[in-house]
Amino acid sequence: MSDVRxxxxxxxxxxxxxxxxxxxxxxxxxxxxxxxxxxxPHVGQDAGLLAGRAAxxxxxxxxxxxxxxxxxVLIDFSSPASTVALAExxxxxxxxHVIGTTGLSTSDLEAIAAAAERTVVVRSGNMSLGVNLLxxxxxxxxxxxxxxxxxxxxxxxxxxxxxxxxxxALLLGEAAARGRxxxxxxxxxxxxxxxxxxxxPGDIGFASLRGGTVVGDHTVVFxxxxxxxxxxxxxxxxxxFARGAIAxxxxxxxRAPGLYxxxxxxxxxxx
Length: 271
Prior knowledge:
Elements: E1 4-9, H1 14-24, E2 29-35, H2 47-50, E3 60-61, H3 64-68, E4 73-76, H4 80-93, E5 96-99, H5 106-115, E6 120-123, H6 129-145, E7 150-157, H7 167-180, E8 188-189, E9 204-210, E10 216-224, E11 227-235, H8 239-251, E12 258-260, H9 262-266
Parallel strand pairs: 1-2, 1-4, 2-3, 4-5, 5-6, 6-12, 7-9, 8-9
Antiparallel strand pairs: 7-10, 10-11
Helix pairs in contact: 1-8, 4-5, 6-7
């Protein structure tokens, strides 16, 4: 069977370079394209050299439509606006779309869902195995404990992160909401300042910390009367996200169009 041909969005960014390097080390995958914005000084450079590896003959391009013509899967950790635009292009080209972009709005998610009617889309706020297993545990704990146990999600990332709460925190919040059979949007406490009054029963709270070079720490706290349960995950290497995205890309081969998650990729969606 031929290798799955992958295109990486944001090739010059930290995640883009890591993805290019990881694809070079992966069996069953090959780099077919590397995309950057038209004003990037890296357009035209060899993607392998850009990622600190040997030259691979793939030049960084600013033309997504041309790159998609020779691709099977687009891997995208870019910005919400870019991701939505690329979702439409990927769907039109019949190319699968693996999305790790965070900070997506409700309208962004609706546009991605519409694109998934025509092609395979795997979207997750976090591509790591550990986080997705944590989400399963959070869902089960929330179901077993019920709303009498207060749920709080604490996350910390490096000082350059631009969105809050993190996509992973929201993924975990959604898991807790599913466990309680409620909608997160209706039971979410995102900010507390001043005289807030007592905690609203049933809320799922979020706290975001930023500083240093932290890759990603997440803790879900279930606080009951006289006892507390804490479930945590700490990312020590961004490579876990690149490896997870590549695994998702390989998984898309032969799948029917639809919107999937990393839980589907890992086979734990119905666990």
